[in-house]
User: Which sequence fits this backbone?
């Protein structure tokens, strides 16, 4: 038996000392819905897909295999799909407009769809920079 004593405090690494976190607060902060989060409207500019699916599958599982997550109505799902469709179509048009040549317009348009949906305006800006380097 050793009489060596540690200078480190005895604490649980999985809990914050002195902080009471209400249930669900961590998921709200992680999803960006809290006071310090980005919120859906700002997050949409960065990634429409992430903003659209934010909050899906929290806490309770869906009732059936085809049912939307709890707290989300069928109307919400329809609007989410419609907004993602519109964002995808606009990303296609942006990709076509960015293309360095007319022959590559369709290819760049289809590349613009996932780039626009997953990275938003930042990704489309990078595509524009790449296209400008190819033009010059």
Assistant:
């Amino acid at each position: 038996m050793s009489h060596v004593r540690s200078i480190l405090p005895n604490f649980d690494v999985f809990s914050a000392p002195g902080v009471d976190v209400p249930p669900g607060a961590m998921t709200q902060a992680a999803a960006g819905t809290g006071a310090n989060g980005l919120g859906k409207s700002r997050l949409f500019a960065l990634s429409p897909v992430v903003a659209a699916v934010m909050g899906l599958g929290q806490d309770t599982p869906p009732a059936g295999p085809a049912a939307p997550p709890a707290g989300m109505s069928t109307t919400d799902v329809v609007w989410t799909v419609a907004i993602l469709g519109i964002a995808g179509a606009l990303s296609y048009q942006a990709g076509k407009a960015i293309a360095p040549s007319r022959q590559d317009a369709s290819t760049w348009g289809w590349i613009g769809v996932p780039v626009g949906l997953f990275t938003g305006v930042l990704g489309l800006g990078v595509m524009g920079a790449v296209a400008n380097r190819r033009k010059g």
